[in-house]
Design brief:
alpha/beta, Aldehyde Oxidoreductase, domain 3, 3 domains, four-stranded mixed β-sheet, four-stranded antiparallel β-sheet, binds uracil
């Protein structure tokens, strides 16, 4: 077997054999296939695609590159959620303790933000004392004691994907449906969850900009999950405008705690409840309605226990950025657009995100949103508050907002985009 033959096969629109796929993933993980060869193959896959058999084998080979976790010793069924990433997407924070409060165990291995989308671990790390890195024993203990754990995936889980994802990130080969689907599903299947709900984001702030591509990605991932014995389903959800009223680490924790206290923005509550119901149904857990667990405080109790178990102080004040800058409405009328991508880039430039994996993030930085599409606004009213510790970033952050806000004359009809656009089972 040699890398050049494998690359040529895909370059010439051929099908890779199972043996070729197994070999190339294994050899790349061990360093016997060079980065430049894997880059060429990834580009050939992006341009020429893979069929269902190839995607399934590729996913399986990435799972076999590392360890598999096993939660079968837990008394309750396990359910996990994966979002393809968006702006203001803090849903994992209220969702994990909420689903735990309703009777399923939630092993949530999460990532950090890169680029304009935030990362769950960065958000939780704004809570004083909270630790993302747990040993396998600590993870199991937290899951057993609290019903949910949100932590960093260890290096042993799908190491082939870790290496390949970093390479795709710098070679313009992230946006290939076979590669995205196999990347996400190899980690989720290796994680060992019994049920999985995928939140596939659609719109300017997401990888998938249109519904057709998002449907194809969702169907591919649901197929991979089911074939591996994981009860998998997907919701396609809107990411044309930010989710909720905050984008940025500590700002999003504050909003998540509001949801757990029975309040919070309507879109965050709606999506949290929809995903919780899907997770519980997929795990075969029927009993408590998630809306009751938000109302009666049991979801909040699980949150507090989960945060404390990982060293965090759920009562500690959250970090606040040193400087604020208010962006006002330029005209009166109806707010018809607030672009998710622009707000994400703005929050990132304010210091909420990182450009390179090793960069630090500012816990308090981000964007607070005062009006969402559909709201009547008057000229001069605050629309956004930009938070940062480094005000020299304001000019660059404000540039990201050029064209992001659309205000139409008063009386212009406005049809809101539903949060949940489709469901794939
Ligand atoms: N998230 C992943 O884990 N992998 C991808 O390829 C894209 C998003």
């Amino acid at each position: 077997m040699d890398a050049i033959t494998v690359i040529r096969t895909k370059r010439d629109r051929g099908e890779l054999t199972d043996a070729q796929i197994d070999w190339v993933i294994d050899a790349y993980t061990r360093g016997d296939v060079a980065d430049e060869q894997m880059s060429a193959l990834a580009m050939a896959i992006l341009l020429n695609g893979m069929n269902a058999r190839e995607i399934s084998r590729w996913t399986d080979a990435m799972i076999r590159s590392g360890e598999r976790m096993d939660f079968s010793s837990l008394p309750q069924p396990t359910a996990d959620k994966h979002s393809t990433g968006g702006v203001g997407d803090k849903i994992t924070l209220p969702l994990a303790p909420l689903v735990a409060a309703c009777g399923a165990a939630v092993p949530q291995l999460s990532g950090r933000g890169l680029g304009h989308t935030g990362g769950t671990l960065d958000k939780l790390e704004s809570i004083p004392g909270w630790r993302a890195l747990l040993s396998n024993d600590e993870m199991m203990r937290t899951l057993r004691d609290c019903g949910a754990v949100v932590c960093a995936a260890g290096d042993g889980l799908a190491p082939a994907d870790k290496k390949l994802y970093a390479l795709r990130d710098v070679t313009g080969t992230v946006e290939a449906i076979p590669l995205i689907a196999s990347s996400i599903m190899s980690k989720k299947i290796a994680e060992g969850t019994g049920a999985l709900v995928l939140d596939v984001k659609v719109g300017s702030g997401a990888f998938m900009k249109n519904l057709d591509d998002a449907r194809e990605l969702a169907r591919t991932m649901v197929g991979l999950g089911r074939a591996a014995g994981v009860e998998t389903r997907a919701l396609l959800t809107d990411m044309s405008t930010p989710l909720g009223l905050t984008a940025g680490n500590a700002l999003e924790v504050r909003e998540s705690v509001e949801v757990l206290a029975g309040g919070g923005p309507a879109d965050v509550v709606e999506l949290t409840l929809a995903l919780a119901r899907e997770m519980l149904a997929a795990a075969g857990v029927h009993g408590k309605d998630p809306a009751d667990a938000l109302r009666d405080g049991t979801a909040m109790d699980h949150w507090r226990r989960m945060i404390a178990a990982q060293g965090g102080d759920p009562d500690a004040p959250l970090p606040v950025a040193r400087e604020q800058h208010v962006v006002t409405a330029a005209a009166s009328g109806v707010l018809t657009g607030l672009d998710a991508y622009a707000v994400g880039v703005c929050a990132w430039r304010l210091g909420a995100g990182r450009a390179r994996k090793e960069d630090p993030v500012q816990a308090g930085a981000g964007v607070e949103i005062h009006a969402k599409p559909g709201a009547a606004v008057t000229e001069g009213q605050p629309l956004l508050t930009l938070h940062t510790d480094t005000p020299e970033r304001y000019d660059y952050a404000l540039e990201a907002l050029a064209g992001a806000v659309t205000v139409a004359p008063a009386g212009t009809p406005f049809t809101p985009t539903p949060i949940i656009l489709d469901r794939i089972v």
